Amino acid sequence: MTDYRSVNRANWDERAPAHAKSPDYALDRFLADPGHLSEVVRFDQPRLGDLTGLRGVHLQCHIGTDTVSLHRLGARMTGLDFSPAALAEARRLAAGTDAAVDFVEADVYDAAAVLEPGGFDLVYTGIGALCWLPDIRRWASVVAALLRPGGRLFLREGHPMLFTVDDARPDGLLTVEFPYFERPEPTVFQAPGTYVTTEETFTHNVTHEWNHGLGEVVTALLDAGFDLTMLAEHDSAPWDALPGRTERAGPGEWRLADRPWRLPQTYTLQARRRA
């Protein structure tokens, strides 16, 4: 298998500065309004509960908008990502907003080696993270290693059913084309753009990605020593996952315009590490 980390890191390194400039990430609002939260965190704020004083780590934090948002809700946050370009933007955002957030450069599978094992009350993982990882069971073991007994995982992620859909057919049908279950080899995509509004052009356009079925994610966590405490599926996503077929569904969310009940687009999961 090709070195998927290098391929994917080149893709993210090139896009991170464009994401920071895009109105979709709204970094200017973070700088102007000390109460502003990312739309991703705001969507799940009722499920997050009181974070005051919790020590949290945001895995695969990208440019840090969700990390800073969790800090603003009272958590003592660390962000971890493998992209130095993304972390440069995250650190710039934290400095500009006086947010006391630490950012660490590392692959997510190495998180327990570079952070304090058992030192966190909360592990947070946001939209579009798990698809970059080839082994969901290994990820679950890393999360377990980071959390203290009784600590909590909070995950909102693209639904694996959404990631199976091919929406590029000329007849307009949505068809199940890509793997639902984790496969040994990645699905290789080549796409010149990105998911935010930008006029930038890119040269690193190949990505290696894996899907993980909902049952695979839950079972991996159970086997890693977690108890599932919440699982909610949503008919919307915080990006326009199916352009031309969606409509706005509240701040920062899109759902299918035609019979949105046909397709789950994201899910929120919470689990606690067993004592």
UniProtKB/TrEMBL annotation:
GO terms for biological process: methylation. The keyword DNA damage does not apply. Its EC number is 2.1.1.222, 2.1.1.64. This is Class I SAM-dependent methyltransferase. Keywords: Methyltransferase, Transferase. It is an enzyme of class 2 (transferase). One of its GO terms (molecular function) is 3-demethylubiquinol 3-O-methyltransferase activity. It holds the Pfam family Methyltransf_12. Residues 58-153 form the Methyltransferase type domain. It comes from the Bacteria. InterPro entries: Methyltransf_12, SAM-dependent_MTases_sf.
